[in-house]
Design a protein that fits this description.
Elements (H helix, E strand, L loop, with lengths): L2 H16 L26 E4 L5 E4 L6 E3 L2 H9 L6 E4 L23 H6 L4 E5 L5 H6 L4 E4 L4 H15 L2 H26 L5 E7 L3 E2 L5 H8 L3 E2 L13 H7 L3 E5 L16 H4 L3 E4 L1 H8 L5 H15 L2
Parallel strand pairs: 3-4, 3-5, 5-6, 7-9, 7-10, 10-11
Antiparallel strand pairs: 1-2, 7-8
Helix pairs in contact: 5-6, 5-7, 6-11, 10-11
């Protein structure tokens, strides 16, 4: 995501998703397994998405609209970026998608533009409020879950199935997991058995990455201790005093917000602030961390590298 508006919109969506009861894609037959070949050689697609809607297509879609940056990046990482005819306004990677029509954001999607693009399918985040409106207008949609680390692999698998490229999805998932594992191993070696307490701020508020979020799960793989407890949820809004009380060893934050830490009441006394144990990420790096998509390994490596450098 780019800028505070983008990150805030993403966070509102994720928090909303966390409150919705609904079975994720896991536990069902794999998306790829539900594709069967037709007699004429085409591949009819029948899939159930994260919102329990059934997707039926006679052949893989050629005109695709995506309404979340991580979804856009996944389509491109699968080598199918040429099928994109529109994205949300925040999708900015790879560079080729910047020239595509922009259909608004998570809270203000341009329904009229989406319909005019005549997509074969719109792929969007589970619980996006515009799903039902699009379906009422006859637009085919496919929802994916974007909350946990496992959701990343499930989303890649599902999107690969929708596009009719399941083997490319398998390879991409393997590449992501290999890179994440490499970063985790390197970070644990650098920490030499240390288990620093950490606080990851995903947005001013402050909103934090809890242990059940995909960011929190990555932090745990590095051997850290999250000061946010599981019962608070994946991305809780905290009372600033909570952070002061738990006094983390390391703080992760955007480079934009890092300079204000000392101005927050009591935060100038935090060990991480006093001892300069703060990992401040620029916008491009933050995108790779907060977007649950194919570049997550890059974000994970950035977290690991800084943690190894500043952790006590």
């Amino acid at each position: 995501m780019r800028g505070r508006t983008a990150l805030g919109a993403w966070l509102r969506l994720i928090v909303g998703c966390a409150a919705i009861a609904g079975a994720p894609i896991a536990g069902r037959p794999s998306a790829a397994a539900q594709i069967t070949a037709a007699p004429n050689g085409a591949a009819p697609i029948v899939l159930e998405d994260a919102a329990h809607h059934t997707l039926r297509l006679d052949h893989p879609p050629q005109r695709v609209v995506t309404l979340l940056p991580s979804i856009t990046e996944t389509v491109c990482a699968l080598g199918e970026g040429a099928r994109l005819v529109g994205t949300d306004r925040y999708s900015n990677w790879p560079a080729m998608v910047q020239k595509l029509p922009k259909a608004g954001g998570l809270d203000d999607a341009d329904i009229e533009l989406i319909v005019s693009l005549q997509p074969d399918v719109v792929i969007l985040a589970h619980a996006a409020r515009i799903t039902e409106r699009l379906r009422e207008l006859g637009v085919v949609t496919f929802d994916v879950e974007t909350r946990t680390y496992e959701d990343i692999a499930r989303s890649v698998t599902a999107i690969g199935a929708v596009l009719g490229v399941p083997n490319q999805a398998i390879k991409l998932n393997r590449d992501i997991e290999r890179s994440v594992n490499d970063a985790a191993v390197g970070a644990r070696l650098a920490l030499s058995g240390r288990t620093p307490s950490v606080y990851y701020e995903v947005d001013r508020g402050p909103y934090a990455a809890g242990p059940q979020s995909f960011i929190g799960e990555m932090l745990a793989r590095l051997g850290t201790r999250n000061i946010v407890t599981a019962e608070l949820g994946p991305f809780p809004k905290l009372n600033p005093e909570y952070v002061v009380r738990h006094d983390p060893d390391v703080i992760f934050i955007s480079a934009t917000d890092a300079p204000e830490l000392k101005r927050r009441p009591g935060w100038d006394q935090l060990r991480a602030v006093r001892e300069h144990r703060v990992c401040a990420f620029d916008r491009d790096t933050t995108d790779t961390i907060v977007r649950p998509g194919p570049r997550v390994a890059e974000g994970f490596a950035a977290i690991a590298a800084c943690l190894g450098h500043v952790a006590p």
